[in-house]
Specification:
There is one protein chain. The chain has helices spanning 13-21, 36-42, 59-64, 83-88, 101-116, 119-127, 153-164, 178-184, 191-197, 217-221, 240-249, 287-307, 324-344, 365-377, 388-395, 467-477, 508-515; strands spanning 4-7, 25-28, 48-51, 70-73, 92-94, 145-149, 168-172, 187-188, 200-203, 227-231, 252-257, 276-278, 349-358, 399-405, 413-421, 425-432, 438-443, 446-450, 455-462, 482-489, 495-502, 520-527. Helix 13 packs parallel to helix 14. The longest helix has 21 residues, at 287-307. Helix 10 (217-221) links the parallel strand 9 (200-203) and strand 10. By secondary structure, it is of the alpha/beta class. The chain has four domains: 4-99 and 288-316, Rossmann fold (3-Layer(aba) Sandwich); 101-278, Rossmann fold; 319-443, D-3-phosphoglycerate dehydrogenase, domain 3 (60s Ribosomal Protein L30, Chain: A, 2-Layer Sandwich); 454-528, Alpha-Beta Plaits, CATH 3.30.70. It has a seven-stranded parallel beta sheet, sandwiched between helices. Strands 14-13-15-16-17-18 form a six-stranded mixed beta sheet, covered by helices on one side.
């Protein structure tokens, strides 16, 4: 019997035809995504579900999807899909992360021109019968400096277009290597330098804990007077009230905003300002982009349902049924090692070396390496997955090296991940014990045995008497409950590491108190 696919959102007729050409039974009901009860009632009849943003694939929908094998999102964002619920039920969730990159980049360029030449206000004035030529004095973009925050797939396209406009381009992106920056023709800089030099700033980074409110009052204070700010990436990257205040004060001359903290944005503090250009999240809204992502998701879903091929899956690497039982614990280990290193990395990545020793060296290294790179990149690039991670790493000029060797240590299998940045080299190693749970066995050459939990606290310090007591006092006074406490040191009185699992997230105040303790070198809050 042919697989059955339900399309519950508006999708191109060409995508429908692709399913049919592959011999898949396709049911096109573009309004069904808005009727949650009806969708829950019928979803059990389908092997695949193709959606855009209107359909909410909730835990209730997934619970009712007895035969569902794959959810395909035509677009990049999958926040309308309960991915943990889908994963628990073995449902692959796919997206199309690169289908609308050019469209979004072009919209950012359009916003730059609209702000620089006050086009919307000039149009409204002229159509109102006024002729206010002297009022709308603009600025040229030629020879100006463009600062790009996030120089990945979309940011690099913006850089290319800006160079074509004869602009100077500086970029801040911790994952952008100097070699990749040279290839793009941009200058890699730190964030504060970008703020100080840029005439125009455009954001092309996902919203993560590290990028949230990246442009606030303090950041704006570091910028040139008259700077133009463009955000076509994610709401929440810019503190809207701070931007409005800077516009009112004349510090920021204009802003082009396509995304908002709350959407749909029916009301917003930026609305009504004469030097603000607002659009309703149009970054991906072109005929070509909508067609591209629809065709891509139809092809990806067809390949999976008919051949078992997994492309752009956000919740699964490419693993065969035969190797899955042995490989999956090591996939989790590899991703945790990557995440551990990624959350501790604060400067540009140059090289990643992954060593597989013992029995794990005979396993599917492609899936393991993809998992490690996914964990490494995800702290700053939220939408990265096990398929896109190696591609994104290559785009940023990050060298990936794999080494396999026979067992030489005490562990039957272990994985070591070494990250080389502009400033330092850092390594972390782990294994999987007989209980199937990953463990860290070494950090920066210091031996320990630690299982990673949802909320962790990493403290590096000098090994001095009384330090553990002072650390415990800070946590206890703050009401932070310790679940596990793991210690390691290189030698008596030398470098030491504490890796602590706590029952909930640690506040800024507590982290700052620990950082202020004598002999503390670094404090990081980690989540897994």
């Amino acid at each position: 019997m042919a697989p059955k696919v339900l399309i519950s959102d508006q999708l191109s007729p060409t995508a429908v035809q692709i399913f049919k050409d592959h011999g898949i039974d396709v049911d096109y009901q573009p309004s069904l995504g808005k009727d949650k009860d009806k969708l829950a009632e019928v979803i059990g009849n389908y092997d695949g579900l193709a959606i855009r943003s209107a359909t909410k694939v909730t835990e209730k929908i997934i619970a009712a999807a007895g035969n569902l094998k794959v959810v395909g999102r035509a677009g990049i964002g999958v926040d309308n899909v309960d991915i943990p619920a889908a994963t628990a039920k073995g449902i692959i969730v796919m997206n199309t992360p690169f289908g609308n990159s050019i469209t979004t980049a072009e919209h950012a360029i359009a916003m730059m021109f609209a702000c620089a030449r006050q086009l919307p206000a000039a149009d409204a004035s002229t159509q109102a019968g006024k002729w206010e030529k002297s009022r709308f004095m603009g600025v040229e973009l030629t020879a100006k400096t463009l600062g790009i925050i996030g120089c990945g797939n979309i940011g690099s396209i913006v850089a290319d277009r800006a160079l074509g406009l004869k602009m100077r381009v500086v970029a801040f992106d911790p994952f952008l290597s100097h070699e990749r920056a040279e290839d793009l023709g941009v200058e890699k800089v730190e964030l504060d330098e970008l703020f100080a030099r840029a005439d125009v700033i455009t954001l092309h980074t996902p919203l993560t804990d590290k990028t949230r409110n990246i442009i606030d009052a303090a950041a704006i204070e570091k910028m040139k007077k008259g700077v133009i700010i463009v955000n076509c990436a994610r709401g929440g990257l810019v503190v809207e009230a701070d931007l409005r205040a800077a516009l009112d004060a004349g510090k920021v001359s204009a802003a082009g905003i396509d995304v908002f903290e709350v959407e749909p944005a029916k009301e917003n503090v930026l609305f009504g300002h004469p030097n603000v250009v607002c659009t309703p999240h149009l970054g991906a809204a072109t005929t070509e982009a909508q067609e591209n992502v629809a065709l891509q998701i139809a092809e990806q879903m067809s390949d999976y349902l008919l051949k078992g091929a997994v492309s752009n899956a956000v919740n699964s690497p490419s693993i065969t049924a035969e190797e899955a039982p042995k490989l999956k614990p090591f996939v989790k280990l590899a991703e945790q090692l990557g995440s551990f290193a990624g959350q501790l990395t604060e400067s540009g990545l140059k090289k990643v070396r992954i060593e597989y020793e013992g029995a794990v060296a005979e396993m599917n290294a492609k899936a393991l390496t993809a998992a490690a790179i996914t964990g490494l990149l995800r702290p700053l690039l939220q939408d990265v997955n096990m398929v896109s991670a190696p591609v994104i790493a290559r785009e940023r000029g990050i060298m990936i090296e794999e080494v396999r060797r026979e067992q030489v240590g005490v562990y039957e299998s272990h994985i070591r991940l070494t990250v080389e940045t502009d400033r330092q080299s850092r390594s972390v190693a782990g294994t999987v014990f007989s209980d199937g749970k990953p463990r860290l066995i070494q950090i920066k050459g210091i031996n320990m045995d630690a299982e990673l939990g949802p909320n962790m606290l990493y403290v590096s310090n000098k090994d001095k008497p009384g330090f553990i007591g002072h650390l415990g006092m800070v946590l206890g006074t703050a009401g932070v409950n310790i679940a596990t406490f793991n210690l390691g040191r290189s030698a008596p009185g030398e470098d030491a590491i504490c890796l602590i699992e706590v029952d909930g997230p640690v506040s800024d105040a507590v982290a700052n108190s620990i950082a202020g303790l004598e002999n503390v070198v670094q404090v990081k809050r980690l989540s897994f």
